[in-house]
Amino acid sequence: MKISTKGRYGLTIMIELGKQYGEGPLPLRKIAAENDLSEAYLEQLVGPLRNSGLVKSVRGAYGGYMLTRHPREISAGDVIRVLEGPIQPVEGIEDEKQPQRELWVRIRDAVKNVLDTTTIEDLAKANNGETESYMYYI
To answer: Which NCBIfam families match (predicted)?
Structure first.
């Protein structure tokens, strides 16, 4: 499975919003500037995140975006599914012969487990140096 820039930058948005959780809205231009990303591209990504209910927008001079739930309640898997679609290592798993199908299902389940058990709070804390780095075994 390959995560595109949509998923990577979407996680960046969510991590930055997670760091600011409870402190009010954060403008995308600030996220873009601090991470050396295109603000226009982040605007494209935040739409699906807003439509899915993961973030909300606040208008006005001090507006921006905020998480709709606590960062510990949002998983990396939630974000990746919104921006990338279903988590699958290969297309058409059901058409594969039994040994290959079993391998692809095990890989899919391992990736899903990592994404679904890693929260935005975990990533925000790791990004701030508050926790040790994660070692994932798949």
So the answer is: Cys_reg_CymR (NF047409), rrf2_super (TIGR00738)
CA–CA gap between residue 34 and residue 13 (Å, rounded): 11
Question: What are the CA-CA distances from residue 17 to residues 10, 11, 33, 75, 95 (Å)?
Answer: 11, 10, 14, 13, 40
Distance CA 28, CA 26 (A): 6
Q: Which strand (E) or helix (H) includes residue 125? A: helix 120-127
Rg (CA), the chain: 16
Please tell me the pTM assigned to this model: 0.85
Tell which residue, 88, 79, 94, 92, has the closest CA to residue 107: 88
And the tokens for 82? 């919104």
> What gap in Å lies between CA 80 and CA 75, rounded to an integer?
9
Question: What tokens appear for 34 in the block?
Answer: 């601090």
Tokens 């701030």: give the residue.
Answer: 128
Among the residue ranges 15-19, 59-63, 67-71, the one predicted with the least confidence is 59-63
Instruction: Tell me the pLDDT tens digit for each residue of 64-99.
Output: 999 999 999 999 999 999 999 988 777 767 777 788
